[in-house]
TrEMBL record:
The lineage of its organism: Eukaryota, Fungi, Dikarya, Ascomycota, Taphrinomycotina. This is cyclin-dependent kinase. One of its GO terms (cellular component) is nucleus. The keyword Nucleotide-binding applies. InterPro entries: CDK, Kinase-like_dom_sf, Prot_kinase_dom, Protein_kinase_ATP_BS, Ser/Thr_kinase_AS. One of its GO terms (molecular function) is ATP binding. It comes from Protomyces lactucae-debilis.
Length: 370
């Protein structure tokens, strides 16, 4: 069948391959809202007959486009997720539709927590063994989707889910696509965005996910975002402070990128006042520092692949990775806690966090909406 996206793009797909045998959305009772993205809202829901708890993600149809088409991003996400089967990738169970047929939902396995929620609500510090356990699962999931030729393009803490068995799942494939041709640079959450995308490249590849994964790994170690820039220029400045300013020696051809001529890196005098990567991770195991430096480098061709990461000395040196089933759980950070979503969103957007003040802001926003 032919489907038209909200951007007017017409694509041909097999209805069976894309949606499979759809079920009525009325089979699922919504329990609470978990989050919202550009193309849909996610609810925790329960199957009315089996009692199974699931995540129900709606496919948003913009008002002016209802009856005209489905967002191409949503079509890609459904198609990609239905083609993937791996323990470290969130599983689409089925597709549900509403009575009007313009309401489409992805029914996905439910995971109790995401890593952003754990850090922002529980405010914990993972042990080196626990970090290694989570990192192995992250890169195993990444290696699998890369083997299928899929770029995630939005790896970040809130898109990494954790179930009650300690299994990490890559989630939210709304920005994912197959590796091919020109692609938009308007992807990846700012704090996890690779420098080539920040400088406007449309010819990027799987390696952008490895940059993001390096930022995630650093955050797992320190419990703090590695590069929390306020805008694109500020993000590049933070990167320069961490690994130095780009040059033709470290990144041949970077000056040809669309926005490179508009960016002026900090002076060497300023950079000398910043903590570089080895300094920021002083005291950590050598293998970890080496791995981070091999992921967080300017030249995309020099970044490790996910497969190479899994063979890295970091995973062979002590301490050994914790068993997933022995990872701690945090009841206060479970996704069914309704306040957690606005709380962590406000918190992660603030570099100077005062808990009491933030709670007041969140409650004030809730009162204004009610």
């Amino acid at each position: 069948m032919k489907l038209t996206s909200v951007t007017g793009e017409v694509i041909s797909v097999s209805a069976d391959d894309l949606l499979g045998n759809c079920v009525p959305s009325a089979l699922y009772a919504r329990l609470n809202r978990l989050g919202e993205g550009t193309y849909g809202v996610v609810h925790r829901a329960r199957h009315t007959k089996t009692g199974e708890t699931v995540a129900l993600k709606s496919v948003r149809l913009f008002e002016q486009d209802k009856g005209e088409g489905i967002p191409i991003t949503a079509l890609r996400e459904i198609s990609i997720l239905k083609s993937l089967r791996h323990k470290n990738v969130v599983n689409v169970l089925e597709v549900a539709v509403g009575d009007a047929l313009d309401e489409i939902y992805m029914v996905m396995e439910y995971c109790e927590q995401d890593l952003a929620n754990i850090f922002d609500v529980a405010q914990i510090q993972f042990t080196p063994s626990e970090v290694k356990c989570l990192a192995i699962q992250l890169f195993e999931g990444l290696e699998y989707i890369h083997r299928q030729g899929i770029i995630h393009r939005d790896l970040k803490m809130s898109n990494l889910l954790l179930n009650r068995s300690g299994i990490l799942k890559l989630a939210d494939f709304g920005m994912a696509r197959e590796e091919a041709g020109d692609m938009t640079p308007q992807v990846v959450t700012l704090w996890y965005r690779a420098p080539e995308i920040l400088l406007g490249s449309r010819q990027y590849d799987l390696s952008v996910d490895l940059w993001s994964a390096g930022c995630v790994l650093a955050e797992l170690v320190t419990s703090q975002p590695l590069l929390p820039g306020k805008d694109e220029s500020g993000e590049m400045n933070l990167i320069c402070g961490l690994i130095g300013a780009p040059s033709e020696t470290t990144w041949s051809g970077f000056r040809l990128l669309p926005w490179a001529s508009k960016y002026q890196p900090p002076s060497q005098a300023i950079l000398r006042t910043k903590e570089d990567l080895p300094t920021r991770f002083k005291g950590e195991r050598p293998g970890l520092v080496r791995l981070l430096s091999e992921l967080l480098q300017y030249n995309p061709r020099k970044r490790l692949t996910a497969y190479e990461v899994l063979e890295h000395r970091y995973f062979k040196e002590a301490p050994a990775a914790q068993d997933p089933g022995l990872l701690p759980t945090f009841k206060e950070a479970r996704n069914e806690v309704t306040l957690s979503a606005p709380l962590r969103q406000a918190k992660r957007e603030s570099l100077l966090f005062d808990e009491n003040d933030l709670l007041s802001q969140v409650e004030a926003k809730r009162r204004r909406r009610s």
